[in-house]
Amino acid sequence: MSAKTGTIRIGEKTVDMPVRSGTIGPDVVDIGKLYGATGAFTYDPGFLSTAACESKITYIDGDEGVLLHRGYAIEELASQGDFLETCYLLLYGELPTAAQKSDFDYRVTRHTMVHDQMSRFFQGFRRDAHPMAVMVGAVGALAAFYHDSTDITDPTQRMIASMRMIAKMPTLAAMAYKYNVGQPFVYPKNDLDYASNFLRMCFAVPCEDYKINPVIARALDRIFILHADHEQNASTSTVRLAGSTGANPFACIAAGIAALWGPAHGGANEICLQMLAEIGTVDRIPQFIARAKDKNDPFKLMGFGHRVYKNFDPRAKIMHKTCHEVLKELGIKDDPLLDVAMELEKIALNDEYFIERKLYPNVDFYSGITLKAIGFPTSMFTVLFAVARTVGWIAQWKEMIEDPNQKIGRPRQLYTGQPARKYVETAKR
Ligand code: CMC
After folding, report:
1. Separation of 272 CA from ligand 1 center, angstroms?
2. Which of 408, 410, 31, 60 is nearest to 243 (CA)?
3. 3-class secondary structure for 109-158?
4. Contacting residues for 354 by C-beta, under 8 A, at least 6 apart
5. Using a 6 Å CB cutoff, which residues line ligand 1?
6. How far apart (Å, rounded) are the C-alpha atoms in residues 78 and 272?
7. pTM exceeds 0.85 for this model
């Protein structure tokens, strides 16, 4: 029994509920017994005040702009480590030793190829299919190709499925891109690091190999680190909810990809670039700012604001720097889209409406510009987010499956429909 309690009174009924403290962050009131004691549910659409699970993986302090993975600051992970190190950390809870790291890299690398029949599966999609649509289908289909790692009660199978998804996601993402542009698939090359391999699978063609630019590869690796996990966001909660039913891991990650696709979540990086293109020139920015402030206009400045960060998004700070490194490396100076982005950032940061509501550019604002400069079409932006987030989804899924107190997720509701009424025969209606 925890020392602190919270008391809720509903009508004549009073119930004391334990208050639990985490290692850091707000306390939570454990309301599990509320319904039994009072007959009332809690109501919190959008989970503004509700912790849906206990977790040891990622911590965010939105007011202070802090993001920690297993206790390590995102700034340190992004500046000192590589993506696969962050994957190891998220999955196993500790940073790897040199031997553990090389063993992990080796294991991931040896799973990069996909079953050859997958390529025929791709042929079923229209050429102009959105690559996120292809990814939802292709990742879900992995369950049909890798039966030997779908038994979630077997820890070895769980780990093999995890490795397979981290390793195969870039291969599938690159295939989705190649299919869309009408070029042949490029197989993974296992002597390359994760980001370089992905760049090569996307941009090499059989008649001309792709020369990897280390600055670009490092920038992409950093984008992957920054997007690796983000606590209980919409897509991660989707993965947990799907996983709580006992569904296989490939199906759960496909569900996560579907949830990520929306413009309020991972789809923001694509929509943000579309918005910059729609604005077009710097002189048109004020009219879009006016629209963003207009309560009667549904328009929002994409790439601005965050549900949790009400101070600067720490990932955005790192991404801002990376973005400028990439633009400098590629010698991009006179891009009208970039002029709009930079001016928009300046205006919004100094505008009372945005200051009052603590609306800062988020990670997707800068990652979109960076990915465009690297050469990815906007339709691939959310796919890259999904590649990076796969490890976070898997780590959270594994944590849930391995929790002895895990239950199927089953929210309740406030019913406001018709009360019980009698069926009326068609002729009498
Ligand atoms: N442009 C203009 N006004 C905004 C924006 C925006 N981008 N975001 C929020 N507001 C206003 C909103 O209208 C409200 O104003 P008021 O108090 O006058 O009614 C106030 O700010 C608070 O907004 P909210 O809707 O309560 O905030 P939320 O926490 O529910 O929404 C959000 C967070 C990310 C969905 C939202 O800021 C948004 O839609 N941003 C644009 C989409 C985007 O960039 N999403 C990517 C998030 S980062 C990647 C990820 O982690 O998925």
Report:
1. 13
2. 408
3. HCCCCCCCHHHHHHHCCCCCCCHHHHHHHHHHHHHHHCHHHCCCCCHHHH
4. 304, 348, 360
5. 230, 233, 264-266, 268, 292, 300-307, 357, 359, 362-364
6. 23
7. yes
**Which residues 6+ apart lie within 8 Å of 414 measured at CB?**
41, 43
For residue 176, give the nearest of 360, 423, 380 by alpha carbon. Answer: 380
State the catalytic residue, choosing from 130, 227, 306, 320: 306
Contact by Cβ (8 Å): 362, 304: yes
Separation of CA 45 and ligand 1 centre (Å)? 16
Tell the residue number behind the tokens 């992990």, with chain if given: 104
- How far apart, in whole angstroms, are the C-alpha atoms of residue 186 and residue 64? 43
Distance 307 CA to ligand 1 centre (A): 7
The atom number, within ligand 1, closest to the CA of 303 reads 44
Residue closest by Cα to atom 8 of ligand 1 = 305
Mutating to test ligand 1, I would choose from 269, 304, 351, 353 the residue with most ligand atoms within 8 A of its C-beta, which is 304
Catalytic residue among 82, 105, 221, 364: 364
Please give the pLDDT value at position 338: 81
Cα 263 to middle of ligand 1, angstroms:
11
Spatial contact of 75 and 321, defined as CB atoms under 8 Å apart:
no
Please confirm, yes or no, whether 306 is among the known catalytic residues: yes
Q: Are 55 and 398 in contact (CB under 8 A)?
A: no
Number of CB atoms found within 10 A of residue 118's CB: 19
Q: Which protein residue has the closest C-alpha to ligand 1 atom 30?
A: 307
111 is catalytic: no
- pLDDT, tens digit (0-9, with 9 covering 90-100), for 83-138: 999 999 999 999 999 999 999 999 999 999 999 999 899 999 999 999 999 999 99
For the chain of 429 residues, list the mean pLDDT of each consecutive stretch of 10: 83 94 96 94 96 96 94 97 98 98 95 92 93 96 92 94 96 97 95 97 92 96 97 97 97 98 89 92 93 93 88 89 92 84 89 91 88 94 97 98 93 97 97
Q: How far is CA 373 from the centre of its chain?
A: 21
Helix axis angle, 363-374 to 381-401, nearest 10°? 130
Closest CA to ligand 1's atom 24: 307
Around Cβ 21, how many Cβ atoms within 10 Å? Answer: 12
Probe ligand 1: pick from 362, 363, 366, 381, max atoms within 8 Å of CB? 362
SS3 349: helix
